[in-house]
Fold:
Amino acid sequence: MASASAHKGAGFDFSNEVRYVRFRNSFLTDRGIPLPKATSTGTTIVGCLSKDGIILGADRRATAGPIVVTMPKQMLFRCHRLQLFTIHPRGSTYKLPYVTVGSGSLTAMAVFEANWKPNMERTDALDLVCAAISAGIFTDLGSGSNVDACVITASHTEMLRDYVKPNERVQKERTYKFRRGTTEIKNDEIRALAVEEDITYIPTARGRRAT
Structure:
């Protein structure tokens, strides 16, 4: 009889996480507690290789479902060699000259594919990163606000907060103020909504299940 291999493949092992999720779900459902719902999040984060290091960039908007917050997003990295990796939740890694992640990644990737070149100077690479983040800001509802950048070399790391401000508010040409009652309310009506539910029990192997 063949025995199970003790060798683990490359990448991260998420088997404990899978077992925990199954245990958590059964623990909650057995007690009638609804399972937590997934929350849609959004942002744009990019990175690319330059001649002397790595340039990273991110927008300042954090989106989680209906909540939208503008806040600084801290990214910490350590550079040993000029290499840039992206790591997916499933554990796979990709070594690439430029990467984009987040809800605005497709638009940002188009900017890199059209303009990135090997051995770019610091200024050119930094401008390209800002252009990619700005593309995500203007085309993705989950991204927004200003552009943060980070320049990483073998000797130092430089954080550039609010390096580009593509959405600065300008002074309005006029001040619009309307006196109370300008828009007249013709009528006011309140309706009571009655909701009816039909519960049908379907016999299963473990008992009855409501639908």
